[in-house]
């Protein structure tokens, strides 16, 4: 750990952390992963992702000293005002870290060692995506596959909401055309989660062998084409007058039942 005091918000060594507003989605800053908060930075430091730098207020840096001590990376310390000036918003969690984005894994290799998989269609809300990854980690889902329309799991808000667990659950983007690429899951029993009345109650399905659960975005849900690819359409029984759950909540219920 190389502890460096900074007092100039224009310091070029802080460029990894500069102007981290939601506009960085449009700017396509995809070569870098940003972790925010003590717990998430700690998980980043312990993950396979290579940490580039850490930037925060002294109290948060001190809390991370045990995990940062063995890292040969610059650790920049500043007051909260300079930190916020650089980042572009008030950093209430007091510390951030940057890491290199690794190359995407081979889908074949990922599926070759997986038994339980989540497959996502059109999930473009960063917070829902982060929460879903946290749930996947909690219930032992081995991998997550996304279609090309899904949001980036390594975007800052997704990483934060996942509490860093997106850094430990392997994921990959399925190739086009969709949903034809679901053919890559041959050997998995594919469950499609849907509120449709004709679907089988989730609690009644058998889960022997390898399985994958297909989840769609809130609002539109799964497309008809994706539903048609499933082996079984399943639903979460709910009280009258409630037709669906938040997608991350529905995923948690499904993972808990199927796992």
UniProtKB/TrEMBL annotation:
Keyword Methyltransferase: yes
Molecular functions (GO terms): methyltransferase activity
CDD domains tied to this protein: SpoU-like_rRNA-MTase
Domain tRNA/rRNA methyltransferase SpoU type: 117-255
Keyword annotations from UniProtKB, A to Z: Methyltransferase, Transferase
Pfam families on file: SpoU_methylase (PF00588)
KW Cell division (keyword) present: no
GO BP terms, alphabetized: methylation
Annotated coiled-coil segments of the chain: none
Highest taxon of the lineage: Bacteria
Protein name: RNA methyltransferase
Organism: Jatrophihabitans cynanchi
């Amino acid at each position: 750990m190389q502890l460096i005091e900074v007092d100039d918000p224009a310091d070029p060594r802080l460029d990894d952390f500069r102007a981290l507003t939601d506009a960085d989605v449009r700017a396509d800053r995809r070569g870098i992963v940003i972790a925010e908060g003590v717990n998430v930075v700690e998980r980043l430091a312990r993950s396979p992702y290579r940490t580039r730098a850490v930037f925060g207020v002294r109290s948060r840096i001190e809390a991370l000293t045990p995990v940062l001590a063995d890292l040969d990376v610059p650790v920049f310390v500043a007051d909260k005002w300079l930190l916020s000036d650089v980042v572009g918003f008030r950093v209430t969690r007091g510390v951030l870290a940057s890491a290199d984005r690794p190359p995407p894994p081979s889908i074949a290799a990922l599926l070759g060692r997986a038994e339980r998989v989540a497959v996502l269609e059109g999930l473009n809300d960063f917070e829902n995506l982060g929460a879903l990854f946290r749930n996947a980690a909690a219930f032992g889902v081995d991998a997550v596959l996304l279609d090309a329309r899904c949001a980036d799991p390594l975007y800052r808000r997704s990483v934060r909401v996942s509490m860093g667990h997106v850094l430990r659950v392997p994921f990959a983007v399925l190739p086009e055309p969709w949903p034809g690429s679901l053919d890559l899951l041959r050997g998995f029993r594919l469950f499609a989660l849907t509120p449709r009345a004709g679907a089988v109650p989730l609690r009644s399905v058998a889960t022997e062998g390898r399985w994958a659960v297909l989840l769609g975005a809130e609002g539109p849900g799964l497309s008809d084409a994706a539903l048609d690819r499933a082996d079984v359409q399943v639903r979460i029984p709910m009280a009258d007058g409630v037709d669906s759950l938040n997608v991350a909540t529905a995923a948690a219920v499904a993972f808990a039942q199927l796992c």
